Amino acid sequence: MSDTIRFTLDGRDVEAAPGQTIWEVAHGQGLVIPHLCHRPEPGYRPDGNCRACMVEVDGERNLVASCIRQPTDGMVVSTDTQRAATARKLVIEMLAADQPERAEAHDRSSHFWEMADAVGVAESRFPTMEADRIPLLDDSHVAMRVNLDACIQCNLCVRACREVQVNDVIGMAGRGHEAFPVFDQDDPMGASTCVACGECVQACPTGALMPASVVNDDQVGDRADIDREVQSVCPFCGVGCQVSVKIKDDRVKYIEGINGPANEGRLCVKGRFGFDYIHNAQRLTVPLVRREDAPAKGLNVDPANPWTHFREATWDEALDLAARGLVDLRSFYGGKSVAGFGSAKCTNEEAYLFQKLIRQGFKHNNVDHCTRLCHASSVAALMENVGSGAVTASFNEIENADIAIVIGANPTENHPVAATYFKQFAKRGGKLVVMDPRGQRGLQRHAWKELRFRPGTDVALLNAIMNVIVEEKLYDRQYIEGFTEGFFEFRDHIRAFTPERMAELCGIDPGTIREVARAYADARAGMIFWGMGVSQHIHGTDNARCLISLALLCGHVGRPGTGLHPLRGQNNVQGASDAGLIPQVMPDYQSVTDGEVRDLFRHIWRGTEIDAQPGLTVVEIMDRVYRGEIKGMYVLGENPAMSDPDVEHARKALAHLDHLVVQDIFLTETAMFADVILPASALPEKTGTTTNTNRQVQMIRRAVPTPGSAREDWAILVDLARRIGLDWDYSHPRDVFAEMKMSMFSLHHITWSRLEAEGAVTYPCKSPDEPGEAVVFGDGFPRRAGRAKFTPARVTPPAEVPDDTFPMILTTGRQLEHWHTGSMTRRAPVLDAVEPEATAGMHPATLRELGVAPGGRVRLTTRRGSLEVMARADRNVARDMVFLPFAFVEAAANILTNPALDPFGKIPEFKYSAVRVEAAESDAVAAE
Ligand SMILES: Nc1nc2c(c(=O)[nH]1)N[C@H]1C(S)=C(S)[C@@H](COP(=O)(O)OP(=O)(O)OC[C@H]3O[C@@H](n4cnc5c(=O)[nH]c(N)nc54)[C@H](O)[C@@H]3O)O[C@H]1N2
Ligand SMILES: Nc1nc2c(c(=O)[nH]1)N[C@H]1C(S)=C(S)[C@@H](COP(=O)(O)OP(=O)(O)OC[C@H]3O[C@@H](n4cnc5c(=O)[nH]c(N)nc54)[C@H](O)[C@@H]3O)O[C@H]1N2
Ligand SMILES: [Mo]
């Protein structure tokens, strides 16, 4: 390359790429130059403040900070002169004078002490300058400890908080030697707006900021005091952050982010501090079978004391009973009397085995998983119009975009690491448009436009935007001609949806609609991100169709910085779907109705006939269970007794089952109805692969053993399959992966050994030595003639609208610290300490009208049921709405939700029900 810079480093001729610093080049050559305020990890800007990395440049009087200085052509740089070495050592020695003694250090193996070792500083000749200024221990946060006596003012925590995670909580107060980091307005960390991503803890070079789990009561600790470290992937969301698990005595001591393709070292509170669910005392450690004398099935088991309803069994007995119950139903009523829910929390191999077990063992396709409650409608629209259900571009592509729309997704809470990229995008001038009926605390101040429209009116808003683009001819005509079909019909259809008419429905003024439409159409590159606010409606598929049409109109697909990205939820929902855990399709979305597909699987599965009839979906299966048509179920890693809509109905259905086998890591609400409970492995306890929202297939490496006699999910599946008569002979997840490759073209060029070596490969991947494609469909779509399609969408009201009896709107969703049904996060002490209680968010004005103070209790009632919950004042919630998270069994949101389904995606309308809100009686009495 012509702009390569050539210079001399310690007498050798070397090259630098434009923008590279002397430190980076030296580091690349294997030279060790000490650094304290510099962090070579991606995302950290060099600051050049600590002077620990000084080098000499010919012709310059002063030494220069190599971390920040970029070489120029012909420059002669020496790192190894006496003068430079002495200067560097002096810096460290002076700083050492103010550090706590190494024996008492908060982190004996801190980066600082490593650097001191590297330059040969064991103690300091200088007097300590330690002033009274330093605030001592701040232990106000459950997960982190702040000991500023070790702070060297390097500013890394500030950069971590402001520039990498863009949370803007930490700042520097005071000047010079007196400076120290503060949280917000010098609040205790635990009382500040800190979201506990822990980036500062990971960046701090001295141990001034430490994970609480690494220091003792005297604030002494040692990061290196571990037995081993295993690189794997976070078990929570679809971002798929790579982690390093630090293990001592077979327990996780702490977690750090590593440089995975999606997270580049970053983590959120769950990934960093939520790992401890796996060590919870309520983990299932032995197989359980229902006692003969157990009370009737219901939500009546104490997970801490299951012995009232269950007894311990050996694995042989439990597996025999589990299999026999299913086989008996099969032989008496036929295979269709048994159905299965698989898991998006397990690996690809486990998902594959699960769908195979149902399809091969029971000869039908009634197998589904939580994707049905999630992005089913998005996938339906994407398959229909784009020809593929996965994202067209990784979320990290936002760095190449000019505009990005985030609609019906709350990424700072639900995909927090992806959100850091969104915030960085906005900070460098990208136009961020947030469309959500609820105000978004996290993205609000980064948004160029925040459109708080009426819930359930996405089609109206999006059609109005597209109307402007069509009427003003802002569309990309060349793109439409080259890569799409159906434009003319679409153009005629969209004419009716003028901003003026749609404004009445969605509540956004026509001027704003026009401005957003023009900005998106005029941008060089635009991306669209969406979530459950789009998909969980009876018109979820229509909502997603609009987003697809919008991107197609403007040609914002297939190039860097463009794309359609439904943010996938569970850590492996992309992979479980790819692996065929879906009732209509086999692995890689190959339709069960296609004879050639069935032939292929007959061949791979040694003569198994695949049922040509598409299977039933989650809510449909529950309905058949309720009606008694399905009599047995195998539920792996799902908690439908909490996560299904109209959950009382689902619970009754579960209680009706003749035979229920639940395989989980905790005694969940669903397991309370089980006949046999099989104790399984958490993600950090298993080997396999998962696929994240970016289509990155990643290696899961077993970090710690399973507790008690719990076993890895894949191994349990194999044993159970054999007992129901299948000739399975897998002896390692690797064998399963090899079989998956036989039918899954998406895994082309992705091999187990590659994943072991590289950690992640993105599909599609063109060759064995490429990382895979971040952006797809630049040269056409996997549809007829390579063209994507415009499918017009009409405005449909929600299935249930407010009336006199149920005058408000209930919407449900998530919060940062909790995971879905709470099974994991309510058993993770740090997370549960931050969010211990169920709350319903309402506007302060609404609470005043109801006569309820924040913290008081309200009763929520819908056509399905009624519950009491604590009220939380939240200005982000519209006045006629209530927001309720669904993680709390004592106020289970799904008692209230509407099971009405989208006709295409078969997804229920979790985001909209008519509700009545009253001051709770108990509260009214207390107030009197
Ligand atoms: N902390 C945490 N993170 C998670 C999860 C978790 O349980 N906890 N779950 C994971 C999973 S499986 C998923 S699917 C994702 C979900 O992640 P998100 O899609 O972000 O999930 P939600 O919070 O359910 O809803 C998103 C937004 O939809 C908005 N909304 C409500 N009604 C409407 C509407 O009519 N139109 C529009 N446009 N928006 C509306 C809500 O106000 C909310 O801000 O999160 C994943 N990440
Ligand atoms: N009201 C309302 N309801 C909703 C939604 C909403 O927004 N509002 N969102 C819907 C969405 S998007 C989703 S994805 C679903 C999620 O619904 P579910 O998938 O039912 O919810 P989770 O709590 O994630 O259940 C996962 C289960 O797997 C177990 N588990 C975790 N790891 C492992 C493992 O490695 N092996 C095994 N065997 N088990 C494991 C956990 O203990 C837990 O019981 O909820 C849906 N329900
Ligand atoms: Mo989800």
Automatic annotation (TrEMBL):
Cited InterPro entries: 2Fe-2S_ferredoxin-like_sf, 2Fe-2S_ferredoxin-type, 4Fe4S_Fe-S-bd, 4Fe4S_Fe_S_CS, Asp_de-COase-like_dom_sf, CT_Formate-Dh_H, Formate_Dh-H_N, Formate_DH_asu
GO molecular function: 4 iron, 4 sulfur cluster binding; formate dehydrogenase (NAD+) activity; metal ion binding; molybdopterin cofactor binding; NADH dehydrogenase activity
GO cellular component: membrane; oxidoreductase complex
Record domain 4Fe-4S ferredoxin-type: where: 142-172, 185-214
Domain 2Fe-2S ferredoxin-type span(s) in chain numbering: 3-83
PROSITE patterns xref list: 2FE2S_FER_2, 4FE4S_FER_1, 4FE4S_FER_2, 4FE4S_MOW_BIS_MGD, MOLYBDOPTERIN_PROK_1, MOLYBDOPTERIN_PROK_2
Ranges for domain 4Fe-4S Mo/W bis-MGD-type: 227-282
Keywords, alphabetical: 4Fe-4S, Iron, Iron-sulfur, Metal-binding, Oxidoreductase, Repeat
EC assignment: 1.2.1.2
SUPFAM superfamilies: 2Fe-2S ferredoxin-like, 4Fe-4S ferredoxins, ADC-like, Formate dehydrogenase/DMSO reductase, domains 1-3
Protein's recorded name: Putative formate dehydrogenase
Similarity field: In the C-terminal section; belongs to the prokaryotic molybdopterin-containing oxidoreductase family.
Gene Ontology biological process terms in this record: formate metabolic process; respiratory electron transport chain
Keyword Iron: yes
